[in-house]
Amino acid sequence: xxxxxxxxxxxxxxxxxxxxxxxxxxxxxxxxxxxxxxxxxxxxxxxxxxxxxxxxxxxxxxxxxxxxxxxxxxxxxxxxxxxxxxxxxxxxxxxxxxxxxxxxxxxxxxxxxxxxxxxxxxxxxxxxxxxxxxxxxxxxxxxxxxxxxxxxxxxxxxxxxxxxxxxxxxxxxxxxxxxxxxxxxxxxxxxxxxxxxxxxxxxxxxxxxxxxxxxxxxxxxxxxxxxxxxxxxxxxxxxxxxxxxxxxxxxxxxxxxxxxxxxxxxxxxxxxxxxxxxxxxxxxxxxxxxxxxxxxxxxxxxxxxxxxxxxxxxxxxxxxxxx
Length: 323
Description:
With 323 residues, the chain is α/β, with parallel strands linked by helices.
């Protein structure tokens, strides 16, 4: 009998009860009431229900991260002390199930220096594996130089930052999506808006020069890289006149890793492998916004050999996160 492969899922969400109460910040929106209740129940659970569904799907370890928009929607005065409480409570959940959970920190990005300090505390004192940031902070993308103290600290600590979607900027919704958002709310989220906003953030990181300033910085993008791996040739070609020492593709493939969260497609996986190589791709589900079984069932039919399958399921995550 074949041995079950060890499976690490890297973008798996929860919500903190205190943060959830701040105007419903932790509650997913744009879902029908039945689906929303189903998702909220699972976001709230860091015990029996989550472990049961992990076991049923064959997932051995989840790397937990806070649901959108998290602390990115909280002002600096409130976010700094709240971040410590949120991360300490998540650490308590890890201690209850140390063989089943790891974590990405929530950071109070409205105060970048405090966020850098909180990143260091969670990594060095709590054993967290990096951090996740959602969308923008105060309508500003995180490539802005005011946020660079966070990325400097992440490079010093040698931990990755996971850039995760949140709702598009209000002006973008007004200009691009308002005609269809009411009838098709998914256009603001996983169907399109999330991807466009997060791919834009990834592109801006490359253009900002932050990787020149902090060459050890590592960035993770979910959802098969938010489309960027498929566009690397064209973006690089379009920027060839102004990016001469290193192409966009060179920088992206040096500093970015991607996950399969909510994107279980052989065609997409193979395309990303051809652009970036299998060593840069990590398995994720996007639980509970995506369900575990479709993700792990997909793994059983991957068009990969045993060595590359092992890298996708656990090897790449072990190396990147030092698990």
